[in-house]
Amino acid sequence: MATTWKDFLDQTEKPDKFDEKSKEIIEFVNFQLRSKRHIVLVTSGGTTVPLESKTVRFLDNFSVGSRGALSTEYFLKRGYAVIFLTRNRGLRPFLRHVPKTNILDLLTITDSKDVKVKPEYEQKILQVLQTYQEIKNENLLLTVEFQTLSDYLQLLKACSVALQPAGNQAVLYLAAAVSDFYIPKDLMPEHKIQSSGGPLKLSLQLVPKMLEPLVKEWVPDAFVVSFKLETDKDLLISKALQAIDKYQHQIVIANLLETRKKEIFVVTKETQDHVSLSDADIKNGKEIEELIIDCLVEHHHQFCSVENV
Ligand code: PAZ
């Protein structure tokens, strides 16, 4: 059973094509360093926790990856290159603007048997595609997918270590909803759990906290933003402060499950800023991620200027 982060990473399998993905991540970071760009790692969506080695069933959580997808767009707008570490079926930047209908309903076949976007969707898709292609052509966005908790943690380490040479130009924006519990491989049944065995009792172990090695060893000079989600508002700020105190990173974004799309707190060692959307903002379609990223970019610039003195 893993009790330290090292044991956990040693004892869990690496995701498919791990070496290829790691190489791609390093190349992406090197390209941005040569272009002298700030780089942000955005983590997004929920991790799954398998119950069987040949997995039929797994535990999951509520996160759909809105925070990560929207934040990625706003970081790109502010000139950052983004590594988007996302749950495989999570919400994607840009794609979210495409009408949410079956893709086949967006298309039509012309008389000459070409496939075309239906006229009513053309304008919207043109707009989204232009922005997306500009970002891709300039090599500003790298998407890396995970599904399970162990995939996520293995890739988080690979991305973080790759970002080390970027020093304080690197931002880690850890918005993924990562399970605190898992079943170690040696305690996991190989085959599908049978209902003939009666009611299922699960015993889950604690996942070692990865923020500690991330801050101290993997990217010690980077600007690190973690997220704290709670459902009890009386715990929110104290838990965020505890995290800052324990891991000594720069910022915790604290949010409540029910209000997370309209208000958050930006918590540092010294300050607690309430950031929220007004009713008029909501009516005008403003998104809280825009306010979060504006605030973080300011903090990051300040961090870099102090560090560079
Ligand atoms: O993915 P989403 O937009 O549905 O939710 C975002 C969020 C609540 C997962 C994120 O803001 C967050 O708080 N992440 C950290 C969760 C945690 O405390 O583990």
From TrEMBL:
Residues 164-262 form the DNA/pantothenate metabolism flavoprotein C-terminal domain. Keywords: Ligase. Coiled coil: none annotated. One of its GO terms (molecular function) is ligase activity. It comes from the Eukaryota. GO terms for biological process: coenzyme A biosynthetic process. Its EC number is 6.3.2.51. InterPro entries: CoaB-like_sf, DNA/pantothenate-metab_flavo_C. Signal peptide: none annotated. Belongs to the PPC synthetase family. This is PPCS. It comes from Mytilus coruscus (Sea mussel).
